[in-house]
Task: structure prediction
Amino acid sequence: MKFNRMELNAFDPDGVGVDNGTYFGLPFEPGTAELVLVSAPWDVTVSYGAGTAHAPDAVIEASTQLDFHEPLAPGVWRRGIATADVDYALLEESQRLRSDAEKVIAHLEGGGSPEDDYAVRKVRRINEGCRAMNANIGAQAARWLDAGKTVGLVGGDHSTPYGLIRALGDRHGEFGILHIDAHCDLRDAYEGFEFSHASIMFNVLRDVPSVKKIAQVAVRDFSGTEAALAASSARVATFDCRSPPRCSAARPGTRCAGESWMRCRRRFT
Result:
């Protein structure tokens, strides 16, 4: 969607949200915005409760109800938050392959073997489709990163950031990931799905050496194999419900003592 300068000047951040098909109803196009949001309407491999493939549209619709004033960064929205065109072919493919995934999951939960031809054929199709989705998101991310933009992604299930992370890895010597999740997502091809929502951080460790650290916060549910991988990898730091809060970046090995976020932030800016 294109906007001219007159429309931006006429935009009222304190007025009624405008349903114009963009996140937050903001009047920016990707070419002039600082942040570009890419959408990934995809939820093929979710284990329980599909529907996140429709999240980008739902977020776009709901986001017009938000206000723009941020006391810590007044007027920051003026730097530009734009919505890349949503590729709805991804949604159509997700819905097609989700049907196959549901059959595979039901087969396994019913005691069926993952080696049965019935499951193998469907898993192969799903893995091929997930690779294509990753390539699609990676290409979209690369386009905007190469244009000098900061790129965000709205999924979709937990597998969807993989293409963006790969694109970042191709362009940066090293970086880290703050992974806020109830699960570790460190399973190797969960349920046979190579790019499962439960496997993204395993895949990142394997495929993106530029990621030097994954800090996993709020983890509460994980397998023994995942726990062993996290414990053995210097690139994974897991903070579960038993982990005491620490300000290790500010004072290694010491607990937080009520220091405000503003003071912590000034240490790193």
Notes: Confidence is low (pLDDT under 50) at residues 1-6. The longest strand covers residues 211-219. Residues 17 and 65 are 6 Å apart (CA to CA).
